[in-house]
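Usage example:
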Amino acid sequence: MLKQIEGSRAVAEAVALCRPEVICAYPISPQTHIVEALGEIVSSGRLAPCEFVNVESEFAAMSVAIGASAAGARAYTATASQGLLYMAEALFNASGLGLPIVMTVANRAIGAPINIWNDHTDTMSQRDCGWIQLFAENNQEALDLHVIAFRLAEELSLPVMVCMDGFILTHAYERVDVPDQAQVDAYLPPFNPRQILDPAEPVSIGAMVGPEAFMEVRYLAHAKQSQALSLIPRWAGAFRQAFGREAGGLARSYRTEEAETIVVALGSVLGTLKDTVDELRESGGRIGVLGVSCFRPWPFAAVREALAGAQRVVVVEKGMAVGVGGIVSNNVRTAISTRPIPVYDVVAGLGGRPITKASLAAVLQRAMTDDLELTTFLDLDRALVEKVLRKEREVRRSGPIAEQVLKLKG
Amino acid sequence: MAALSKVALICVKTTAAAASRMTLVFQIRIHGRGGQGVVSAAEMLSIAAFNEGKHAQAFPSFGSERTGAPVVAYCRLDEREIRVREPIMHPDALIIQDPTLLHQVDVFAGLSPSAYILINTTRSFEELGVADFVRGFQPERLCTVPANELALKHVGRPVPSAALLGGFAALSGLVSLESVAQAIRSKFSGRLAEGNVAAAAAAFKHAQAN
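Running the assembly step on the lines above writes:
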């Protein structure tokens, strides 16, 4: 049924249709509306049986989800930013134990300096925690990815993070098609766990493993993620058949036919990029877009294949490894390491800085003529940065950096 | 629909360089203060347009929303899927919920003389001190509505957003008053909904007579 609703509400509706039996809720912007809406749905009796657990922290949220999942319940939670970092230890446990928890992350910057706005630093910081990471381009995909995520998680017995841009998607009202219960039930069978804490058939989950077996257990985690690379397209295909629209998968190309330049990105910036690329195409630019839906596991082959015809690649990403540069771009480089083409890295939108079509068009035009540094920062106020650096050279007690930048910004 | 295409033609003229994809989009920027329902106004407007089969996207400016602090919300309307996520920098219409912002915030940023302006006030553009700014604008696209007064009368509190949407429906013809009423009823219920619907209807009438 078509509805004009907030992204967070759309996700809550999708999660409810997936019939989770345990929802762990702890508020943090910009994720809060999701668990609030789920709280309403549970208290109205529409989603039953379901235990809605108000926990005291994100660490507790993930710990409760782990316990619930190990006991055979379909478990869900949501978080963002510092909340994701606070549950970091439990994240590794969830994946290490192979528990199919689904979690929404409403992507938000990480402090310091404190910032509540969107970028991808939070989930990028947890890219190696063993969870599958799927990125939503718009609210329809955010909704759809949750249905896919539960199917995938339970098939593989691995946890899945659905990443959606905080505020930009979570707080946006747009048209979404909310499936009906029968459709979701047909796609997502009841949870049939690979392992379960059952007093009738006791097992222990979470044994200590020494040097004699640890490598093997870790290898199996890696093998499972590789297995995910073939299951993800399969479940995206099944989704397309059942629901009649595209969602998920590994990566999707847009106007890449005869493209000399391909722009790679994740999440909601893909919409702005597609509009920008349409305009560049109209003025004769041979440019297209590759949207990566699945960041973990990293789809080496799909990316390599999608970029096979490109003479250069531009990665627009909302995060960076400080002291290195782009994170997604480094993954792209490994995927196409046998081809000596430039991979330009454009770090954009940190801490909620708007990513405009005008700025994207300008940087892409430069890239198309190979007139771009390998790593650039979109709309960076370079003069301001130079001032701060100069002061640091001249004055020993130059003071806190964030406050200086704010003062210079006026 | 007719109004949207009329506006679209003007958009083509003013943004000649724009790609064909952009020519149908209509962009509204709403300025107000925390507590006035600025974000709700954008959301309800998107619901009203959705009710008429249009694609619509509404989103707030994501500031730290405190009571009384300046707040901006955006709404885009289009006949096809809206993909762009940038803030609205060149609005086709401006709704100003609090006229004290006129001289505090650059509410007119990026505005072209073909734009619609709707201000919540009992005063005129001249009395508000913005007559010079709107000199080149089309007079039939400039409108004031005493939305606070209408809200006080029909809702009992000075919450101007629903009334302004009624005024905007009359001014722009982009959405019908019925769709606005339906949107209000999907956001609120009971007496609150009906009060806001009445305020919107009164503002619609006021704007039409204006």
